[in-house]
Design brief:
This protein is an alpha/beta fold. Helix content is about 45%, strand content about 15%. It has helices at about 35-55, 70-80, 85-100, 115-130, 205-215, 230-245, 275-280, 285-290, 305-330, 340-360, 365-385, 390-405, 420-435, 440-450, and strands spanning about 1-5, 10-15, 20-25, 60-65, 135, 140, 180-185, 200, 220-225, 250-255, 260, 265, 300, 455-460, 460-465. The chain is elongated. Its EC number is 6.1.1.16.
Length: about 475
Amino acid sequence: MKIYNTLTQKKEEFIPVEENKVRMYVCGPTVYNYIHIGNARPAIFFDTVRRYFEYKGYKVNYVSNFTDVDDKIIKRAIEEGVDASVISERFIKEFRTDMKALNVKEATYHPKATEEIEGMIEMIKTLIDKGYAYEKDGTVYFRARSFKDYGKLSKKNIDDLEAGARIAVSELKEDPMDFVLWKPKKEGEPSWPSPWGDGRPGWHIECSVMSSKYLGEQIDIHGGGEDLIFPHHENEIAQSEAATGKEFARYWMHNAFINIDNKKMSKSEGNFFTVRDICKEYSGQVLRFFMLNAHYRSPLNFSRDLMEAAANSLERILTCVGQLDYLLKNDSVKDGDLTAKEEAVLKEADLLREKFEAAMDDDFNTADAIAAIFELVKLANINCGTDKNKKFILSMKERIVSLCDILGIETEKEEEILPEEIEKLIEERQEARKNKDYAKADKIRDELLKKGIILEDTKEGVRWKRK
């Protein structure tokens, strides 16, 4: 398995720190609002990475944090006249609702920054003792230049960096590139006692501490959006490696941005969409499928036309699995041994599974993996019918479902019970067709279509689906 490592800017063979185990840390949301579709991309992608590692037999310790103390949370709390924890807890709950809709599994651990303050204070003390950090008037800064490899992830030369780009400038700093580890308390803000006075941690130290507590000082994979490469992940490396003297993460993975109708997503442009907004029009499964149809390192353009195309493509897979389920319940399909032709088709299906795995082994190329699933769907559509035996049909279904499951695509639709009047109309149409009264049958079909029910006449019988 090869992974593109942002640190080395090349694909590398995956070799875990500990055999058959994967330690993954993915930066989670700052919980002050509903997550937007840009936040959803890393959540969906790294969940898929985790699922594939588990499929390959690895035991995965997957950690994704909640940043539950932050200027944006505090600002919203002041606006609403409530405690900051009320805001963060509300949006942690909403985040979990969105993740359920996207079929993103719960992390092994979801630590909250506010519950790990003690560990942050200890790491800051270590950095001060080692000469990597200093305190000025209650603020503790990290000496960026004291870490000789600063800039190795973002490929930025510290001398070329302009203070003020994404760095807060302060007269208290020894150097403009130094960044905050601890900040003093302000009136009305949450704070914790520390050796440097009451205050709260800087953003970067939070992830270093939560990662080391739940995964150990050295981890396999650290992931997030490409906007986090600098300064967040660069600063994580500096403070973690300065504190421990060990390599922090072996592989750094970053997903690309999402554009809206080929424009950068922004509230000022009026093209800012939350996951909750999108899920009013499309299912979370369609959004997940849409995201996985592009390679994670490629920018992804979001538009309604592309979402419609994703919905139609996903429906092809679901329809195929539904048809296989229908055949398995059909009395015409008999039990028995596989024929030579059926065995040959299953061997072809196994080659497509290998094609899927080859795509995923090549830096998690989900787009090519989905293409392999569509080939499998086509194979099933051509070769599965009432003249085949149940063992063969079940084997084909299991192959499709298992690969979809790796991508987090749910293939089983909840069985829907139609209203009695609709059932009665379908029966009347069947009777009309039996009596060769095709005019009446067509009239009933049109009536059902107006009610949002599409009928499909197949050789196995009539089937229906919602418009």
